[in-house]
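Hallway conversation turned thread

IA: we were arguing at lunch whether anyone had actually written out Trypsin-like peptidase domain-containing protein end to end. Turns out nobody had. So, for the record, here is the sequence (386 residues) and right after it the structure tokens. Reply here if something looks off.
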Amino acid sequence: MRKHSIIKQVSLFLALALCLGFAGGALLTRRTTAAAETDGSTTTYDAVYSSDNPIPEIAANVRPSVVQVITSAATWDGRTREVSTEEIGYGSGTYIRALDSGEGGYILTNNHVIDEGESYQIQWLDGTIMDAELVGADDGTDIAILQFNEPAPDDATPVPLGDSDALQIGELAIVIGNPGSGDEVLFGTVTAGIISGLEREGVTAQGSFTRPVSTIQVDASINTGNSGGALLNAQGELVGIPTIKMTASYTTIYEGLGFCIPINTAKDIIDQLIENGEVVRPRLGVTVTTVDGPDEPMRNYAPAGVQVVTVEEGSPAEAAGLQAYDIITEINGERIYSNDELIAVIDQFSAGDTVELTVCRYYNENGTALAEYEELTVEVELQIID
């Protein structure tokens, strides 16, 4: 059977409310007593009703580290003929890492929170407002990093990053953020529920991902302004970034469908943005299109896969002998059916890595059909292509 996820069939026309979520930092500076008592085991929502409820202590520790992100841009008033600065967007962010100097640090948020902004501020739970500068952003995964250069409030410390790969469906999910905008923000709002689903594919919204990202589904309330906030586990660790809320399709009204970027997806992106200000990904050097067909190649029917449209001159793909009309069906033995699957697999590698492609060739590079198709194994050394 094909590996297509049913979730990929989710309509792109769904009415989605975006909420900004902020990812935790790489420095582990605190853990709660409740977290220590769990010994890392899965805690379900039943804990909320017990004397061992970990949420109050987690909220007390993490709320001061989740900020509101205010995005502003210059505007032109044709009537007054004056230029002014206007707030154009609001979201949340999480304090994830301190600067080496000890004064200042990094805030993780969503790219769609800071997109089109020219200046930024962060507001802490205690009301302190600071200027922030954009370190870097990645529209592929909807992640951005801001930097502040003043001492954080005394009760605000970097939130430890957890392991989103260890999450289980049904375990406790805690969301902290700042829903609302302008003068109607409910700072430090805490909601709780469970992990409702893992590896949800094809869930997106206008302004969110431009690359395939598998998300975490939660039923903890996420609202506009939560984007870039914190999804936490029962140990008080940041395991996801609240990013999207699904509200309705043409035929259905939804409740309790929120989606978060897994923190393990974000970790490498965070490091690259802080170190380089951008995310650099290796490429094959081809343009491709998804084609349908049988699972296995047949004499008169090319298989489903990713067909090469053009090969860039001087690219790794050209050096490896790939041609237009070739159909890529596997990467390192993993079956590939779509452009998104191809991108998702390639994104797991670094420049200099070699991948093995299984390729079906039914036509030569001029589009003339071959008398017999060929099934080839091609090794490609991935490179950074400007």
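OS: looked through it. Confidence is low (pLDDT under 50) at residues 1-39.
IA: good, adding that to the notes. The longest strand covers residues 82-98.
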